[in-house]
Amino acid sequence: MSLEAKERGPEVSYQLALLITGVALAYWVDLGFVQGLDRHPWLWRIPLALQSCFAIFSASLLFMLPDTPRWYYARGHEEKGDRVLARLHALPVDHEAVQAVKAEIKASLDEEDESGKISLMILFWDNTELQFGRRLRTSFLINWVNCSLLRHRLTNADRHLGTTIPGHQHACVLLYPNLQQS
């Protein structure tokens, strides 16, 4: 069933919390297996296989998902869009809730058509109400700064520990800077 607007924020927060927890768990599993690499050089394959299982499972499920109603409506496939939208809401196609969401999707598509197509020039000079270019530049800047700070912090952690830390162990060193090599 499709989420109502008031449920989307908490659902996104819950999904991100699970994602971050999974990343932290993967780093700890990596740390545990890397400890024995000097005795068993093949140990790095186990965390890779464990993490790959989830990715392969998720990727295989993608083939069973239908395209979004928005994609169908944007390409003029009204009937397919209606069927998918009704299925998402578990309601008949002519139900008022399904028709209201369809109207919202159509209105947003019409608004996008009025505002024009996205071009490379928008990245540098954007005077539209949505300010897509400014938002995209800001997100690139945030990612670049985060990567730069991480790289700086990890270089100092390597120097502090007196060793070169494998790339997948950096998150543990960031979380626990007093981690000493045993």
Termini separation comes to: 51 Å
* Relative strand content: under 5%
Sum up the overall morphology in one term. extended
Provide the succession of SSEs: HHHHHHHH
- Low-pLDDT runs of 5+ residues are 168-177
**Computed structural class:** mainly alpha
| Computed Rg | 23 Å
The strand count comes to 0
Which percent bin holds the helix content?
55-70%
Overall tally of structural domains? 3
Q: Main beta sheet: strand number and arrangement? A: none
Number of helices: 8
Mean of all residue-level pLDDT scores: 77
Q: Can you characterise this structure?
A:
The chain has 182 residues and is an all-alpha fold. It folds into 3 domains: 1-64; 66-116, Orthogonal Bundle (GTP Cyclohydrolase I, Chain A, domain 1), CATH 1.10.286; 119-182. It is 70% helix and 0% strand. The chain has 8 helices and no strands. Helix 4 (78-89) crosses helix 5 (96-115). The N and C termini lie far apart (51 Å). Mean pLDDT is 77; it is low at 168-177.
